[in-house]
Each structure stands twice: as C-alpha cells, then as structure tokens.
What we know:
By secondary structure, the protein is α/β, with parallel strands linked by helices. The chain has 16 helices and 13 strands. Helix 6 links the parallel strand 5 and strand 6 (about 125-130).
Amino acid sequence: MRGGASKVFGSRLPEALSLLNFKSQLDLLRSDTLTVLCYHRIGRPDDDQFHGFRPNFSASPEQFKLQMKLLRTLFSPVSLQDVLHWHETGNALPRRAVLVTFDDGYRDNGDLAWPIMRSLEIPGVVFVATDYIGTGKAFLWDFAAYCFEATKHERVLLPLLGETHLSTPSERHIAVSAWVEASKRQRAGKRSILVHALAKALEVSPPPEAFARLCLDWPTIRSLEKEGLEFGGHTHTHPILTQLSSSEAQDEIATSQRILSAELGHPVRAFAYPNGSASDYSSEHEEAVERAGFAMGFSLEPGPTTLEEVNNRPTAVRRLYVGRQDSIPRLLIKCFGAARFASSRKGHGDFAAAIGAKQTSAEAR
Length: 365
C-alpha cells in the first residue's frame, strides 16, 4: 500500500497515507452505492487573461489530477455505459463505483481534463448545452464576467444590483457573482434583456472572438467520443426548466437530444438538469426526459446514492458538486456522504456550507 501511495501521490505521501486510512471506513459504504461527481471547468482562472466566469472552475489541472488519482486508488471508476448496462441488465457494478461528469461543454474538458482521465483509465461524460457548441455564443455568466472585467466604471448603477462599486478586482468578482445569482432568479425569457441592459450600464461591447474558444465544437466532440469520452444532453440554451412553460421545457429537452443525435450519429442516453437542485426540475421534466429518449437524468442534489434509488428513479440521479474549495480531505468527506447528510438536516446551515452541501445557483450549473 505504501509503495502504491507513493507512486500516486508523490510529495504528498504523508497526507495521502493518512487519507488511505479512510479506505477502511470507505469499506463501510454499502456495496450498492454509486457516487457521481459533477465538475464544470478545469483550469487556472486567476491569471491576467479572460477565462470566463471564475466560480465555474472546479479545479486546477494539478488539483484535478490529484483528485483523479484518488478516485483510481480508493474507488472504482465506471463509465456511463457501465451504469446504463447495470440499470438495464442487473449486472453488478464494482464496489465504491464512481462516475465523473462535467456540465455545460467547455473546451477545457477535452483539452485539460480528458488527457488526465485517459492516462489514468478513468471514463467520463460531458453534458453539453447544444446551443453553445461550436457557435461562439457566451453563457450568461461568461458574458457578464467579460463585462465586469472590461468596464472602465468604478461605481455604477446596475440592473438587479443597484449602485455597485467596482474599483478593485475583488469588488468586481463579488459583483459579477451577485449579478449572476440575481439574474438566474428571473424568468428565462428575460435573459437577452438582462445581458443587454448589463452591457449598456457597464458600457462594454464584447467582440465576437471574446468567447470563440470557451466551448467545444462538434468535430472535437466527435473526436473525443471516438477516444472514449461520453456525451449527454444539458438542454439547448441552458434555462432553468421550472422557469419555462411546459411546452418550452419539453422543447429544450427534445432539441438537445435531436441535435446531439444528428451530430454524433446515434441517440444519447443521459441528461443533466441545468442548475440541478430539487426546485429546478419536476416530475413533468423527468417524464419529458424519458420521452426524448434519455434513459437517465442527473440532478445536483448531493449524493452519493444507492443503486436502489437509481433504479426507482433513474431520471433523478444524485451528483456531488466539486468546486475549487474541495481539498482531498473535503472531497473524501463529501464522497462519504457528509454533503447529502447535511443537506437533509434542517437548521445545520454552517455545517452544510462547510462541506459544500449548499450550492448557490451561481455554482450549481
């Protein structure tokens, strides 16, 4: 064990050895448990270049590699196809099965995350919002991030926020997160109005090339799929489904399947709900997911989950959100069930926040 840990964790061996003691505790996990991790972006958002909305980064490449080594050492990484095959045939999944997923469809999923995963033989699935693939369109939060970084204003009256101070980078980071959070509480149909009002107030007009390389394109997705990376639906334009009419929500779900099927040459089997909390989708949306041909739907209600729960409700599989604050010990604690336990406890907000059970809508995309 010691030699194996040294190869995996290198200079962090002392910390790793103490963490490997967790393995005896992890063995207490029920054999029918599935842990699904949800990442968004991998990269280094804190340099001087524009990278989009900073809170959307789940880990640096170094942090992500260490996390993947941890999964390879203590868990049993499985593919989406493995999970679907188990669900459809009853064939057993390995003990401590873990599935790695990404939301939205950012280019760094293929450029940075997948080479690390492929080298460690860890499967993965990317849930893409099809309207942003290969189009150069910006997600609302990335558009806002550009405007807040580029504006010359140091104090301005903003829609949704009122008077806002922007004289320091810290104030701008706080302001963009607050604006994104507030905007996501508005009806989905108001998005274009909101972003134009923001750009006008900040007097910023992003050039078309500002967002050209944020997301994947279809040739790259087809190439990555041939290498083993799997893909699923995440709606077309990434609205929160409960903010839409029934017909609009059904169209968002069906359109994602239609475009993905056409571009990949086969139907896709899994779907992830934008934002993903219990208030962001309903049983009606789960039924729409099934009608569109998806066999599974993934939420962002904290996991892990039992296989019985997955079988009983395959269109609402729990996932653990992973953020930059997740050190190895913190991630292990979440995988052990602390986030799910805390989210189920009323009146324990400090503990829930400490281990990431509570996610703002700005984080849980």
